[in-house]
């Protein structure tokens, strides 16, 4: 579902969607699902999150996409219809209620960015470890092959000279 919303709304990063999710979690700590419908609040949270994360979307665009996601069988809503005006008023009202509930504290410090960075670092270190493991394995194989080949051969003249005390 996140992919559908991301594509249709035009949100380019997961950060905006994550921010909207945090807003909804914080909102429903204080309010009931029966008082504020989750679909209406989701649209308001996404609208606000897009502004906060500096990816603003037009009100018209968010309403059209929200309506399209909820009513797939119906045609696109007309921006001059009474239903559209009602949805626009509801979204703006819900955004204001959301802001008041959050105490206008809209800055979110997401742990996701740190987790992604750590995963990238771990991935880099894993590649380095694999590289050194392969090199070590190759060197061990080469060394064992070389030593087994040396055991099969006759001692070289140099080794014979050394063993005989330098006499030919």
From TrEMBL:
<feature type="domain" description="Cyclin-like">
    <location>
        <begin position="3"/>
        <end position="100"/>
    </location>
</feature>
<dbReference type="InterPro" id="IPR013763">
    <property type="entry name" value="Cyclin-like_dom"/>
</dbReference>
<protein>
    <recommendedName>
        <fullName>Cyclin-like domain-containing protein</fullName>
    </recommendedName>
</protein>
<dbReference type="InterPro" id="IPR043198">
    <property type="entry name" value="Cyclin/Ssn8"/>
</dbReference>
<comment type="similarity">
    <text>Belongs to the cyclin family.</text>
</comment>
<dbReference type="Pfam" id="PF00134">
    <property type="entry name" value="Cyclin_N"/>
</dbReference>
<dbReference type="InterPro" id="IPR036915">
    <property type="entry name" value="Cyclin-like_sf"/>
</dbReference>
<dbReference type="InterPro" id="IPR006671">
    <property type="entry name" value="Cyclin_N"/>
</dbReference>
<keyword id="KW-0195">Cyclin</keyword>
